[in-house]
Specification:
Length: 428
């Protein structure tokens, strides 16, 4: 009986220790961003009880994605009312909060709370007795930072000026993500250097959008320079995408940015994309056992290990749906990817020449691949080599962790690099 009690105590202590370790591991996985039931964890996607499409973006009749008019009006009204965005709540998505905070960023410029290149530029022109049309345009811009076409920019029109006009094409880097405040972004730094900058950067967009923007707006703006800011992450295309009228390139939802185009297939609704991501990333819910294992992070991790090695008949993981999807991506990349990367750059170059503008293809490397070789770049662009890449970027120019965008230092250094590129091209 005594031995039985001893064994019982040992078992009890083992159970207690196991539970404590399980709780500690659950917390560590939580801190690391793992979600219950989610095998392929990603920063930009989360499972939700009810999918909700959030404010922020719209796609127009030409297939161009931009800031929607309701968000533009909210931002401008907050600036007009001098009201900081302290009314936000946790129901707003990260990107939605970022858009709302745009009013704070420009209120800080207006009220003199920022001390940087752009604020000095605004301060200098505000004290001019005689202001030209560009001076007035920028003084208006800080009160109305989203133009009528839905971009964070001065108006898209042909401003008459002796200054060099630059049309920026790009995604979240060009928008100005992850600068502490938007006025620290490289577009604003370029403006402070004396250029007239038209910024068409929109989060999560791609070269097909850049081509469409250049086609539509270059004849209107008549820029001297067009710069394609090509990020070596999501700007490296794997298949052709033709922008469609009113078809979103992504859906801004409470589950994250859901890209509508996957493996060359366009999903027609946010729910379709969401269901696709769930099938790619989560434990299949087809059995009671699977549903139970989806309840905690520890049990999810356990299921993933068992599924990988098909232990106890669990799995397989990846499942057939995931295997076929990634196989399709790889095949289309091998067949078409490099070709389309080249084609989009050649199209932008052609649009530039047609509008008597110089096209500059500027590569933004990923923070973990700053040393990418010219050979690899030539391969990715199928022999197109008329690009430029700043070989002086260092890790401290980027945000750390999941956020691989420029920080303030990176934005400024990139603007100075673009300034050199522009001057070199103009002197040729």
């Amino acid at each position: 009986m005594t031995k039985l009690k001893q064994y019982s105590k040992i078992i009890l202590w083992n159970v207690v220790i196991f539970l404590i370790l399980a709780v500690v591991l659950e917390y560590i996985l939580y801190i690391k961003g793992f979600n219950p039931g989610m095998i392929e964890n990603g920063y930009y996607f989360n499972k939700v009880d009810e999918l909700i499409i959030k404010k922020g973006y719209q796609t127009d009749s030409t297939g161009i994605t931009k800031i929607d008019s309701s968000m533009r009006d909210i931002i401008h009204q907050k600036i007009s009312d001098k009201e900081y965005a302290n009314y936000l709540n946790i129901d707003n998505t990260k990107d939605e909060r970022y858009l709302y905070k745009l009013s704070d960023h420009f209120l800080d410029v207006i009220q003199g709370n920022i001390n940087n290149d752009f604020s000095h530029f605004i301060d200098s022109i505000s004290h001019l007795e005689l202001k030209n049309n560009i001076d007035s345009t920028y003084l208006e811009y800080i009160h109305y930072p989203i133009n009528e076409d839905g971009f964070r920019s001065i108006p898209f029109k042909n401003h008459k000026t002796d200054k060099i006009k630059v049309l920026l094409l790009g995604d979240s880097f060009t928008w100005g993500h992850s600068a502490v405040s938007t006025p620290y972004s490289f577009a604003e730094v370029l403006s402070s250097l004396g250029y007239v900058v038209y910024n068409s950067g929109i989060t999560a967009t791609d070269p097909p959008q850049y081509v469409r923007i250049a086609e539509q707006y270059a004849p209107i703006i008549q820029p001297d320079i067009i710069i394609g800011n090509i990020y070596m992450g999501n700007d490296i295309v794997k298949w052709h995408r033709e922008p469609q009228a009113y078809q979103a390139v992504f859906y801004n939802t409470n589950a994250g940015h859901l890209m509508s185009d996957a493996s060359g297939t366009t999903f027609k609704s946010a729910q379709e994309v969401y269901d696709h991501y769930i099938r790619l990333t989560h434990i299949p819910p087809h059995s009671t056992f699977n549903r139970m294992m989806s309840k905690t992070r520890v049990s999810t991790l356990t299921w993933a290990v068992l599924g990988k090695y098909r232990i106890l008949g669990i799995g397989p993981w990846p499942n057939d749906y995931s295997i076929q999807f990634w196989k399709g991506e790889s095949e289309k990349w091998a067949r078409n990817g490099q070709t389309y990367n080249r084609i989009y750059q050649e199209q932008l170059d052609s649009i530039g020449r047609a509008n008597e503008a110089i096209y500059i293809s500027s590569i933004i490397p990923q923070n973990h691949k700053l040393d990418i070789s010219d050979t690899e770049l030539d391969s990715l662009f199928d022999g197109y080599s008329d690009y430029h890449i700043n070989r002086e970027f260092i890790p401290s120019d980027y945000q750390t962790g999941y956020d691989g965008h420029f920080n303030n230092q990176g934005h400024r250094n990139y603007a100075l690099y673009l300034d050199k590129l522009i001057q070199n091209h103009l002197s040729e």
